[in-house]
C-alpha cells in the first residue's frame, strides 16, 4: 500500500465498471481546473483539502462532506504543508434519476456540507476501498444518498420548468449504444423524435451536462478502465472511440485535471 510521506498516489476500487471509488494522497498541488459530468462526493481523511468552486476557495476538513455538482469547474490542492488524504466516489446523475423520478438534480451550495444526514448517507460509498461492495449494498447506498441530497439541496429555479424525462433518458441510452460513433444532435432528434434544442436543454437539466460532454465522458471512463488493465495510451484512446491519443489526452486533462500518463503512473489497484 502506498504511504503518504510526500509521494502522491491514487488507489482505485476494483468495481470501477459500476462505481468509481478512489482513495488518494497529494502532498501539495493535486489537480488543475477541470470538470466532469458526475457528482464527485467525498470526505477528507487527513489534512485540509482546498479547492476553488464557483469562484470561491473552499476548505474541506474531517467531518465534512464534499459534493461537487456535475460540470462545475474545480481544482485541488493541500491547504497545509502536510498534504491531504481523501476518499471520493463518482456518481452518474443517470443512476440517481430513477430514484428522483426525473427531478432536476440536487445542488449542494458551496460544494461542502456539514449536514449529518449526508455524512451518514455517504458512509457505505466512502468506506475503505479494500472492502468489496455487493450490488444490493450499492443500490441501498445509492437510494440513501439520493434521498439525503434531495433533502438538503438548494432548490434551483429549474424546478419550475417543464421537461421530458422519458425523451432525455432515451437520448442517454442512444448515446451509450453508439458511443464509438461521431453522432450529432440531428441523429438524436431523428432517433428520439423530439426537437434537438428542447432535448438538449432537458438533457442538461436532468443529467447535469450536454449530450456531447456525456458522450466524451463515457469514452473517458472506458479509457480509465483500459489503462488500469495495462493498455497503452494509444490503444486506450482508439478503443474508446477517440480520433487519436492527443485527442483523448486533451479531453482527459479537461475532465480530470491530470494527464492520462500521470494518472496511470500514480494509480494503484488495492
TrEMBL record:
Q: Which InterPro entries match?
A: AraC-bd, AraC_XylS_family_regulators, Homeodomain-like_sf, HTH-like, HTH_AraC
Mind telling me which Pfam families this protein's record contains? AraC_binding (PF02311), HTH_18 (PF12833)
A single GO cellular-component term on record: nucleus
> Residues in domain HTH araC/xylS-type?
169-266
Question: Keywords in UniProt for this one?
Answer: DNA-binding, Transcription, Transcription regulation
Q: Which domain of life is it from?
A: Eukaryota
Q: Which PROSITE patterns match?
A: HTH_ARAC_FAMILY_2
One MF annotation (Gene Ontology) recorded for this entry = sequence-specific DNA binding
Q: Where in the cell is it found?
A: Nucleus
Among PANTHER family, the record links this protein to: HTH-TYPE TRANSCRIPTIONAL ACTIVATOR RHAS-RELATED (PTHR46796), TRANSCRIPTIONAL REGULATORY PROTEIN (PTHR46796:SF2)
Q: What is this protein called?
A: HTH araC/xylS-type domain-containing protein
Organism field: Caenorhabditis remanei (Caenorhabditis vulgaris)
Give the classification, highest ranks: Eukaryota, Metazoa, Ecdysozoa, Nematoda, Chromadorea
Amino acid at each position: 500500500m502506498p504511504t503518504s510521506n510526500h509521494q502522491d498516489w491514487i488507489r482505485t476500487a476494483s468495481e470501477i465498471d459500476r462505481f468509481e471509488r478512489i482513495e488518494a494522497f497529494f502532498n501539495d498541488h493535486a489537480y488543475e481546473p477541470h470538470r466532469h459530468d458526475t457528482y464527485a462526493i467525498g470526505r477528507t481523511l487527513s489534512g485540509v483539502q482546498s479547492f476553488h468552486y464557483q469562484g470561491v476557495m473552499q476548505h474541506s476538513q474531517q467531518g465534512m462532506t464534499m459534493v461537487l455538482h456535475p460540470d462545475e469547474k474545480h481544482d485541488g490542492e493541500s491547504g497545509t504543508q502536510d498534504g491531504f488524504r481523501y476518499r471520493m466516489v463518482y456518481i452518474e446523475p443517470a443512476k440517481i434519476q430513477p430514484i428522483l423520478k426525473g427531478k432536476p438534480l440536487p445542488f449542494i451550495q458551496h460544494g461542502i456540507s456539514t449536514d449529518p444526514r449526508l455524512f451518514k448517507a455517504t458512509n457505505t460509498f466512502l468506506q475503505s476501498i479494500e472492502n468489496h461492495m455487493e450490488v444490493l449494498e450499492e443500490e441501498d447506498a445509492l437510494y440513501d444518498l439520493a434521498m439525503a441530497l434531495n433533502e438538503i439541496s438548494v432548490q434551483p429555479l429549474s424546478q419550475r420548468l417543464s421537461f421530458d424525462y422519458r425523451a432525455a433518458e432515451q437520448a442517454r441510452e442512444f448515446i451509450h449504444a453508439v458511443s464509438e460513433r461521431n453522432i450529432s444532435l440531428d441523429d438524436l432528434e431523428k432517433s428520439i423524435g423530439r426537437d434537438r434544442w428542447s432535448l438538449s436543454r432537458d438533457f442538461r437539466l436532468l443529467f447535469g451536462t450536454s449530450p456531447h460532454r456525456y458522450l466524451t465522458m463515457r469514452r473517458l471512463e472506458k479509457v480509465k478502465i483500459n489503462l488500469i488493465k495495462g493498455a497503452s495510451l494509444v490503444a486506450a484512446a482508439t478503443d474508446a472511440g477517440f480520433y487519436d491519443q492527443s485527442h483523448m489526452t486533451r479531453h482527459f486533462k479537461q475532465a480530470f485535471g491530470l494527464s492520462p500518463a500521470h494518472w496511470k503512473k500514480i494509480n494503484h489497484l488495492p
